[in-house]
Fold each of these.
Amino acid sequence: MKILIAEDDPLILGAYVVLLEGRGHAVKATVNGNECVRAYSQAASYSSTGYGVGRPFDALLLDYMMPEKDGMQVAREILALNPRQRIIFASAFVKETLEESISELGRVIELVQKPFSMKTLVNVIEDAEIYARLEKLNVDVKALKEVQPTHDQIEGLLKGLGTIMKVSF
Amino acid sequence: MANETMQVQEVEQAVRQHGFAPVRTRTDDLLVLAIEKAFEMFGEDCSKALLFQLCTMHRMSHEELLSRYDLIEKSLRTVFGFGSEAITAYVRAHFMKNLGISDSGQPFVDLLRQAKEKEVAGFLSRLPAGEHAALIYSDGRLAEKLGSAFLESGEGPKGALTRSRDKIANVMLYDNLYGFDDHTASKRMLNWIQSVRAASPAGAPATIASEAGLFLGNGLAGAYMMFDAAMGPRPDGVRMLCSCALDRLAGPEQLEHLCEAHSHIILGDSLVIYRSKPA
């Protein structure tokens, strides 16, 4: 996956990069909101055709609290460029982050609650839970991953299959 | 006069009602294989339930539905939302792999259309003697391309029933027929066909292309229909393609005539080749 991270703490940022690159992801690290928006805009203008259409990054991991431009402002600007961009907030303030995401962005965003283990972060980014549920439905996850589906695509598949098979998740 | 109410779907339905059946092409087969492969990804139970749901949505049999990728794509979006994109990406990847071509990133509908266009052109290039095909089209450029592919094939003499003298030396011009009564104009066309055939070396079949829509829509409908009926669906020593723009078709009567006089009807909009069923 191509992942863009905005985190103002260099130690935490470094840990994210080492972990995610170690799992084979391509990571672009930025240290503040402005740099993150610039990196996104630049990548968006180069985004290729095919599976990657309009997908400069598969996921954005944003620190909720950052100086200059916070995670919510970054999310608003990036969603204006690409309304389907997957954004994951890293935040210690679950209630506030969720409420603000609804009022500011008009939708519920994904969130990992700080402090979190690296395993939790990997599971969220790699959609471990959704794939596990798909596997329970006997979906050939390996074959599905061939087309590098996005988070909203596999979420849609799970929801649709759940309806067809009358399974609730 | 052109009948503006004649729609592609009506033509397709009428052609089927006249006993024509679609010819399954390699593109169709590869697409069905790719769709089946994508559904297999969901495991047996989910795949069966999904297919059942899609067939129910469109009131179609399994086989019918699998031949309509447009409907499958639409209904997958209804069921899975964005999730449908993962399925269609899978179908696309396997289709391209089976076809043996690399993915240029074009929209899939365009890729399918190109593949089908190539197949129709190939079909016309290989049209054997004694076959009389009609192309009903909306896109004039497609008709030109397919007409050229047809006229470039075949080893016998070539001729065209057309408006103006172009690359083909042997032509019967519209202006040379207009003003004659139906019987005379029809006779002139048939005599001209005989003269083209007579020029054939060693009995190679003559390749005849006709701008049927020009005659049907400009005061020579009666004469052309007489001529076309005399040629019949299996013309002796001739391979023939009649092209007619959809907006030149003056309703179901002319369409019925086309069905009776031709062995194949090709619908340019869907690029489906229909073959008449044996009597």
Amino acid sequence: MKDINEVINGFMQELRRGTIILLVLSQLREPQYGYSLVSVLEGKGVAIDPGTLYPLLRRLEKQELLESKWDTDDTRPRKYYLLNSFGKEVYEQLCAEWKKMISSVEAVIEREEDKGNGTN
Amino acid sequence: MEQIKRYVYAVTRQLPQKQRPEIERELHSLIEDMVEERVLSGKDAESATEEVLLELGNPNALAANYRGKQRFLISPELFYSYMVVMKIVLISIFVSMTAVFAIEFILNPMEIAVQFANYLLSLFMVIIQGFAWVTISFAIIEYAGVKFPKNGPGTKKEWKPSQLSPVPNPSTLIKPSEPITSIIFSILFLVLFTFSTHMFGIFVFQEGQLLNVVPFFNEEVFRRFIPIIWLLIALSILRDCLKIITKKWTKSLIGLHILFVIASFLLALIMFTNPMIWNSNFTNDLVEFSLLSEGSETFDLVATIWERATQGIIYVIALITLIDIIHTSLKAYRMKNAG
């Protein structure tokens, strides 16, 4: 028998991977650098793997959803990312898709639960 | 600090040249941010660094995240080197074969139509061969990297910061011009040995016109060695490709180089100690083209030089081989000290 926690962890990782883009985009109406984004999300109760986040920021920038700027005034130079108009558009539509997805997934799960309760 | 530098280097060296400085700067500042936060909450710098690097995980995996990992016959990391080698090989083939054709034409201007047809056909065949061998070499290097990663994303072993190899010492770096020159000469020799053994010799000019070539070698005997020469040249080109890719001396590269040098020497030993390989009519040929007259003092002198040279060349090659081996071994020694 496989360890149940291990299996669940694996699936959770996949679920998180799916939501990470949404989470990141949601926080970038204000400029953030990589580590501040980790802290902000952590503060809101979402743990995020920096090894996934940092490359993701670059990828989103390459896909032209984000604008970036180096700030050299701080104690150390930091690269700040910010949503551009295309990014905002993408984020809003993605949010709508997300809500649709949640409600349909929820509907499915609830229906199955009702059925289960019914037969028991 | 050194650990952070090594980590960043381990990540960025796998990324396209153009993106390196930017990612290097960003990653460095991010890691410092993460370390700083842990230090502020009471950790010592060393264990904080260790912790952060472990959290970021295997640099190969992080680099793959930056790249967006995929599988390739020739991956983007190798593609640049592949194109460099491909260009060198194809240009060298074209230039050396055209030179051979030009000399053939000058020697025998009456048969230009046949020669030109032969030239085009040979050029076509050799260029396809060159293309195929370069591609195969790189596909092998690629496959070896995917199948047997040292500590790539494919391995099951836990990655630790202590595995990081040091940033290379300048004395073990390889300048790109070295393998490039080597490939050019390898191809030149490959073409000459294959198509024009008879052109290794004394060029006979008459009134400024190239009349003939008095060859050094007995072509028929020489030809028997050609498959082995091909094999050695293929080995040398593979070695040069590895040099272009790794850009520094590594243990296996030094091993491969010394293996090649010794194999070349053994071949030279077998070839040049066989008296049949030399053109037995060399001095007579020179007389025939009236470069010498029989019985004269110069004739005796040339005959003696010819005899000494054919017997002595293997010693010269032995000396060069020895110097090469010592030179390369010194590199290994310096590498050990630097590491």
